[in-house]
Amino acid sequence: xxxxxxxIVCSPRYLLLNTINGCxxxxxxxILLLKDDVDLEALVNDMNSSFESLxxxxxxxxxxxxxxxxxxxxxxxxxxxxxxxxxxHQRLCRSQPMHILAVRRLQEEDQQYRTSSxxxxxxxxxxxxxxxxxxxxxxxxFPQCQPSGKYxxxxxxxxxxxxxxxxxxxxxxxxxxxxxxYKNHCVDDNSWxxxxxxxxxxxxxxxxxxxxxxxxxxxxxxxxxxxxxxxxAKYEFFKNPLNFFPEQMVALCQETSGTIPPSQLLxxxxxxxxxxxxxxxxxxxxxxxxxxxxxxxxxxxSGLYFSTKGTSKEPRHLQLLADLExxxxxxxxxxxKLHNAPTDFxxxxxxxxxxxxxxxxxxxxxxxxxxxxxxxTAFRLFKxxxxxxxxxxxxxxxxxxxxxxxxxVRSVSENSLVAMDFSGRIGRVIDNPVEAQSAAMEEGHxxxxxxxxxxxxxxxxxxxxxxxxxxxxxxxxxxxxxLSREESHKMINQQGRVDGxxxxxxxxxxxxxxxxxxxxxxxxxxxxxxxxxEDGQMFxxxxxxxxxxxxxxQLVEFYVLNRGVLPCKLKHPCTTVAL
Length: 579
Description:
One of its GO terms (cellular component) is cytoplasm. The protein has 579 residues and is of the alpha+beta class. Strands 5, 6, 7, 8, 9, 10, 11, 12, 13, 14, 15, 16 and 17 form a 13-stranded mixed beta sheet that branches. A six-stranded mixed beta sheet has the order 24-23-22-21-20-25. The protein has helices at residues 40-58, 77-82, 98-116, 126-129, 173-183, 213-218, 241-244, 265-270, 336-339, 369-384, 386-403, 433-456, 485-494, 552-561, and strands spanning 3-5, 15-16, 19-21, 31-32, 150-156, 162-168, 192-198, 203-206, 225-230, 250-251, 277-285, 292-300, 303-307, 318-322, 327-332, 346-351, 362-365, 420-421, 428-429, 501-506, 514-520, 523-534, 537-541, 548-549, 572-573.
C-alpha cells in the first residue's frame, strides 16, 4: 500500500489534521475549528486545491471516483480534474466529507451481500460437515469440483513390461481397456480388465467398468500398480448364475423363509427393494493377530455380519464385520504361510482409507473355490447393483449397433458343418453317417501318404523329436511353453475360473509330451497329450490313440468343436499380452 500523508497548517489559530490513504481515499479526517470567525469556504477551497495537486502528481486511483452521486453513473478522472462546476455549491471534491458516508454505506452493503450470498441451509449432520456449534453449512463443507486435465498412468502387463499413457480425469476403466486393446492390436472380446495390484499387501482386484481410473489411482500407494489382462469371469455370473450361487448359500431375508427360485436369483440381487443374503461358514482372522475363527457369516446389503450364537439370525446376535459402502473386496494372492491361513481360498475386504496397514484388513477364508467366488460376486452385486448389469449389457448393445452398419456374416458352428464329397464334377452333401466316416478316414489316409512322400523328399516331419521346439504351435496364444503346474493354476485363477478356459504347455515329466490344462466347474484338471506312432508317422493323441492329430493346432481346433473325452469343450484360451 501507498500511504501519503499531507499536513496543511493555515494559521496558528487553526489546527488542520488530514490523513490520506492512497489505496482507500474515502477515509478523510477531518477539520477541527478552534474559532467561530473562520472563513470556512476559503479553507475548504484551499484544501481542495492542495489535494487536487497531490492526487494528480501521485496518479493514485481511488474508490471515491467511482461513487454514485444522486444515482448518476461515475465520471472519469479527467472530467473531475478539468471540468468546472456551475457553482461553488455544486462543486464535488474528492476530499469532501460527504463522500465518507456514501462509501461507508456501500462498504456495509457489500459486506452484507457477501455474507448473504450463501443461503443459510439447515445442516442435518453438524458433526460431519462443520463444528458442532455451527447450525448451517459453510462454503468449505461442499465437495470440491472434479479435477480436470490430463493425468499420467502407467500400465503393466503380466510379463512385467510397462507402458505410460496420458488419460483425462473422466476416463473409466472400460475406456482405458478399449484404448489398450486398440493400441496393442488385441482381440476385442470384451474380456479385458484393468487390475488394481498391491504387492506390499498381496492383494488385487479387477476394476469395475464404470470406475474412474484417476480416482482409484489417488487411493493407491507408490508401490501399487495397474495390470492389463484377461478376466473371463467378470460377468460370467449373468450367464450361469447357478454355478456361482449354490442353493445352500443363498437365502431370503430374516422376515421370510424358503429359498430363491433360480429364475429370480439375479433379479433379487439387482433389485434394491429385495433382501437376499449369502450365508455360510467363513474363517475370520482376528484384527492384529494371527489366529483365525470359524464363524457363521451373513452378507447383506447393509454389510457383512457374523452370529455370536451359532447360526442365529436374530439382530441381538449379529455383529458387524465390514461395511460395503466404503470398502472393496480383493483376492489374496500370497501363500497360506504369510497369514497362517487355514485354506488356500483367501479373500479380503479392504477399506478405501487403508493404504499399507495390514492390521486394518479384514482377512477371510472360504472352504473351497466355489464358496469364495460366491462371496466375492455377491459383494459386488450388493455394492453396485444394477450398474453391473448395465456394464454387462453395454458391449452387447455396441455389437448390435455395429451390426446394422456391416454386411451380414454367416456364423459357422458345429451344427452347420457337414461332410462333403468333391470326387465328382460337382460337390454333394454326404447324408449317410457311415459313408461320412469312411470318407473322413480315406481323406486322412491320403493326407498321411502325402505327408510321408514329403518326408522322403527331404522335408522333415514337424513332429520329429529333434524339431519339437520349433513347431508352429509355439506361436499360438494358448501355448505357454515350459510353464509349471503351479504357474498354470495361478494364470487360470487370475483370468477367471470359468468352464472351458484352457492352455497348453510342455510336460515337465515327459519331455516329448504336452499337457492340456482345463477349467471345469471351478476345478482345474490336467490332460497329458502323448505321441503315438502309426505306419512310421508320429501323431498326437489325448485318448491313447483313439483320436490322432498331426499337430497341436489341429487338436485344439477339434476339441473346440467336440468335447470328446474332455469334461467340456475348449472355449476361452488363457493368453497374455505384451504392452
